[in-house]
Amino acid sequence: MAKLRITALDGEHQGEVLEAQFNPKEIEVDRTIPWAAPLGRGPLAFLGAQPARMSFELLFDGVKQSKSVQPQLDRLHLLSSVDRALHHPPRVTVVLGSARGAMPTFEGVIEAVSVRYLRFAGNGVPIRVTATVKLEEFVELSRLLEEERG
Q1: Which residues does 11 contact at the CB level (< 8 Å), separation at least 6?
Q2: Which of 49, 118, 131, 135 lies at a C-alpha separation of 20 to 30 Å from 125?
Q3: Which letter does DSSP use for residue 65 in this model?
Q4: How many CB atoms sit inside 10 A of residue 106's CB?
Q5: What is the pLDDT of residues 3-33, one digit of tens each?
Q6: What angle do CA 55, 84, 7 make, to 5 degrees?
Q7: Residue partners of 117: CB distance under 8 A and separation at least 6
Q8: What is the 3 state secondary structure string of 86-135?
Q9: How many CB atoms lie within 10 A of CB 34?
Q10: How many domains does the chain have?
Q11: Is residue 67's pLDDT more than 90?
């Protein structure tokens, strides 16, 4: 079965990949299309394209092997931290499968990560963790202007 993969597209860690141990149960993709009603009569006015947002929860589980999941969390932190070469976090791509009809690739930046430590080994090593990841679509300014022109 194909695993969800998050890959850095630029910066000093370009090509760095985090592969999900378990695929998320759900992946949410939201896109806001803002319209405004004019004060008088008339058609709605399109206000411009907004970037899409994606969110999902990853589970990292080393309970059976009594193995730390901190290396996977460190990789996620690397993909969501300020890159020294870029002076901002890297763009990433999220892919799940490559077959025809698979979920479309999402290119964006990680805007939030929330980690919940669920279980620890006797020595304090985290062995079960969930991480909620939120991304915002990365859209080149030129592409946004093209979309707004229609």
Answers
A1: 83, 85, 86, 90
A2: 135
A3: T
A4: 20
A5: 999 999 999 999 999 999 999 999 999 999 8
A6: 35
A7: 126, 128, 129
A8: CCECCCEEEECCCCCCCCCCEEEEEEEEEEEEEEECCCCCEEEEEEEEEE
A9: 11
A10: 1
A11: yes
The first and second tokens of residue 70, run together, are 């901190």
- The C-alpha angle 108, 112, 113, rounded to 5 degrees, equals 115
Chain mean pLDDT for the chain: 90
Round to whole Å and give the CA distance between 20 and 22.
Answer: 5
Question: How many Å from the N-terminal Cα to the C-terminal Cα in the chain?
Answer: 39
76 SS3 class: helix
CB 129 within 8 A of CB 77: no
| The residue to which tokens 């092997």 are assigned | 65
Contact indicator for 79, 92 with CB cutoff of 8 Å: yes
The answer to whether 8 and 15 are in contact (CB under 8 A) is yes
Cα–Cα nearest to 16, from 67, 68, 62, 85: 85
95, HSE (Cβ side, Cα atoms, 13 Å): 14
| Eight-state DSSP code of residue 118 | E
Domain of 71, CATH number, reads 2.40.30
Assess contact for 98 and 92: CB atoms under 8 A.
no
